[in-house]
Design brief:
The two termini are 28 Å apart. It is built from six helices and eleven strands. Helix 1 crosses helix 4 and helix 2 packs parallel to helix 3. By secondary structure, it is α/β, with parallel strands linked by helices.
Length: 260
């Protein structure tokens, strides 16, 4: 079922992330959210939760800590944060929109299956709330800048919530590592696929014991036109619609003939 346009000026916005409550990207997203609505709440992980994917904390109790008015930390995952916010902290009036990020690093292609940033938006979609995940690609050199996100994100949100929003939809937005005036527009695109996977580095620790360390996602990207990878490599902002239904429709018909 599709939902109509959302009036941002009266909307309740929940801001979360996976880099933790003190992350500069979260502060940038808070600033963005406050340009859209006066009713902004922050519920974010107490510590960094990168690559936790869509995990829930089930084997211990969670602690939510009120840091100041409308601002909380939770000693759990990004998914925990959205669920706790929706079912507990904001249960009297749940959020109308969840903004997740801004992640310190991109979430492109198969990154979305590992990302805690994306997972927070997924949980919001499961709960029936519109959700947008934001990530800032790191530059090859120098410190990461949030200027491009702060310039473009407000209009991306305004345009996104003005359309009909199908059930189980979330948006994945990636900013290229460029100054605002160098950005080559905003592109709606599909999820890409890298030509290679993730590095595993071998080493020896100070005690002389061997270790394996899963490293960064390899940067060699497929050049397929119309993908999120191609968009950011060409200097554009990538906006990718993701959907919770992972059913492969073309295979379903054939399997139904086999299994009934």
């Amino acid at each position: 079922m599709a939902e109509g346009p959302l009036a941002l000026e009266t909307a309740r916005i929940l801001v979360t992330n996976d880099d933790g409550i003190r992350a500069p990207g979260l502060a940038a997203l808070e600033r963005i959210a406050r340009t859209l609505s006066d009713d902004v709440w922050v519920v974010a992980p107490e510590t960094e939760q990168s690559a936790t994917s869509h995990s829930l904390t089930l084997r211990r109790p969670l602690r939510a800590r009120k840091l100041e008015e409308r601002r909380y930390s939770v000693d759990g995952t990004p998914t925990d944060c959205v669920l706790v916010a929706h079912r507990n902290i904001l249960s009297a009036r749940p959020p109308d929109l969840v903004l997740s990020g801004i992640n310190h690093g991109s979430n492109l292609a198969e990154d979305v299956t590992y990302s805690g940033t994306i997972a927070a938006a997924m949980e919001a979609a499961i709960l029936g709330v519109r959700a947008i995940a934001f990530s800032q690609m790191r530059p090859d050199e120098g410190r990461i800048s949030w200027d491009t996100a702060e310039r473009f994100a407000p209009d991306i949100v305004r345009q996104a919530v003005a359309i009909d929003w199908p059930r189980d939809l979330l948006l994945n937005v990636n900013f290229p590592p460029l100054a605002p005036n160098s950005v080559a527009g905003v592109r709606a695109c599909r999820q890409g696929r890298r030509d290679a996977g993730t590095t595993v580095t071998e080493g020896i620790d100070p005690s002389g014991r061997p270790y394996l360390w899963i490293g960064n996602f390899l940067s060699d990207a497929s050049s397929d036109h119309g993908t999120d990878l191609a968009a950011v490599m060409e200097g554009a902002i990538a906006v990718t619609p993701l959907h919770l239904d992972l059913t492969h429709k073309r295979s379903l018909a054939g399997l139904q003939e086999v299994f009934g």
